[in-house]
Amino acid sequence: MAGLIERYREFLPVSDATPIISLEEGNTPLIPAPHLSKLTGARVFLKYEGANPTGSFKDRGMTMAVSKAVEDGAKAVICASTGNTSAAAAAYAARAGIKCIVLIPEGKVALGKLSQVALSGADILQINGNFDECLNMVRYLSENYPVALVNSVNPYRIEGQKTGAFEIVDQLGYTPTYQAMPVGNAGNITAYWAGYKAYHAAGKAERLPTMLGFQAAGAAPIVNGQVVEAPETVATAIRIGNPASWKQAEAARDESGGLIQAIEDEALLEAYHLLSSKEGVFCEPASAIGVAGILRLAKQNFFKEGDSVVCILTGNGLKDPQTAMTFSEEVQVLAADGPAVAEHLGFVAVG
Ligand SMILES: *Cc1c(COP(=O)(O)O)cnc(C)c1O
User: Fold this and answer.
1) Is the beta carbon of 142 within 6 A of some atom in ligand 1?
2) Does residue 330 carry a pLDDT above 80?
3) Model's pTM, two decimal places?
4) Ligand 1 centroid to 70 CA: how many Å?
5) Distance from the CA of 335 to the center of ligand 1, in angstroms?
6) CA atoms within a 13 Å half-sphere pointing along the CA-CB vector of 203
7) With a 6 A CB cut-off, is 81 part of the ligand 1 pocket?
8) What is residue 1's predicted lDDT score, i.e. its pLDDT?
């Protein structure tokens, strides 16, 4: 199976001169969610972006951004990141044989993401500041020095991420009534909406979905209508106070007749736990916010019979093992003894 540039070439700004830097990203599972369907009364599906090569949807944009950077002769790429953008940039830059520089907010990047970048050989700069400050710095550096910016303000990132929408329509065989997803820097909601519109215009999708976006309550600038100076949430991937694609996210919401709402960390963590324990699907905390959002909407009788909902699970649970472990009780050590283990389990012998 070829990567997404090959599969959706006619919808992407590439030519025969573009060197395709690919890790065979995309084509991720669209998993039916029976438990969530029961709870909400809608047909719920999970688009499992954790199955991408570096474990998040960022690979969709990065295959485009790095391919175009190499086409333009770039010898280095740079990004600000809450973690997953840097993991993707580091992998695609390594594949292309070019340098990668990442700026991350000090102490706020999940362990799995940091470990990916560490092994890749990218230059990691920890900044005493938040994501928004890191983004301002990489904008300055890329404007003044010969290094290509691969954050989602790079239009090729959005182009690549549009393919998530194409895949959903292709996999379902129809356009879902609703799409639910996290909103951080707001590139992804921008890309999905652009993707649905492009597929619709090409006659490949019969209609457009309604977009449901969710921000963490401690990092909800779009919901509050003002920049959050010190964003705070357990969902580090969306710990962003001044989204670069703010206006485009509002346009996606308004044009689709949708909404962008805030979700408390507690509800987000409950959805994160439910996904693992009831659906068998392990995602990172930020990814669960769309599920928390539709569960709350369902309580308000938002969904009607026959509605379908796709939740974008943006990243793999293995990215953030530390948050998962906060749900675990201390694991007891037992003797390597069959009868003793049976007794511990409360088993009663048969016959
Ligand atoms: C980047 C990221 C987000 C936020 O996406 P935006 O395009 O910044 O809104 C959400 N979840 C995960 C896992 C991410 O890596």
Assistant:
1) no
2) yes
3) 0.96
4) 24
5) 44
6) 0
7) no
8) 64
